Amino acid sequence: MTFPMDSFVVATAAADRLAYDRFRAANPGYPVTEGFNNQPGSVPREAMVKAGLITADNRFDARQLDRALCHVAIWRHCAISGGVVHVADERAVVRRDFPAAVAPHVAAADFDIVVWGVDLLEPAWIGFAPGVEGRLIFDQSRTLPDARMFQAGTTPPQRYRLLHCPNPCGYTISPAGARKLLRLCVPFGAALLPYFNDAGAAFPNTAFDRDMARHYKDMDAFILQPLLGVVVEPADGQMVTQHFLRAFEGLARQQGLRLFDPPAASA
Fold it and tell me: Where does residue 97 rank: exposed (0-12), middle (13-18), buried (19+ CB within 10 A)?
């Protein structure tokens, strides 16, 4: 593989060397730039508050604070260098044709962020066409991705408007997008985050990527389908089930139905 742009892997585990090695083993030929990682807890929370990275009421744990530091460092690098940057989670499995598949979608400076990899635990909210929006739900609790089959895929992806995605494992960011995320996300606070477009439902703000997600609708943000990166790990089946129930309950409300009532007896 050859990559015309900088590529980074964000490793946040305490044994970060092992994380890099696992990524290289899963993705032979993928260029890994090191140095954008920290040991969890190595920077005191008080220092992050003083530096303006987080607010005093921020609820990130040590690992999420470390992940936030890593990604903010990459955004700053991107904003200063003026080049487009690929970012991959250390757990990501990436398609072998990634350079050719992603190139048409990031070649022009008409985007802030393009999400091309997703941890399949939670759904994404997508604008499929003007005026047509919907949730893309991956039921990883039923079928885990086959890494070899996935990496051998060659279906050209299409680019769709991204409105919400709380769990990317891979994205490409432009300098303009990096500057927007720095302005919109930093300092990371503790406000509740909207649950897609459901009135009265919200996520707790406990992770940097959830904070990112609330701003996609106000950015030139896109997601590729089919995906070019996934996390090949068992998902939390209960979380997936909750998303399915929320989606169907919303549909039932629109139709004036009660989802779990038994059908009325026929006359």
Answer: middle
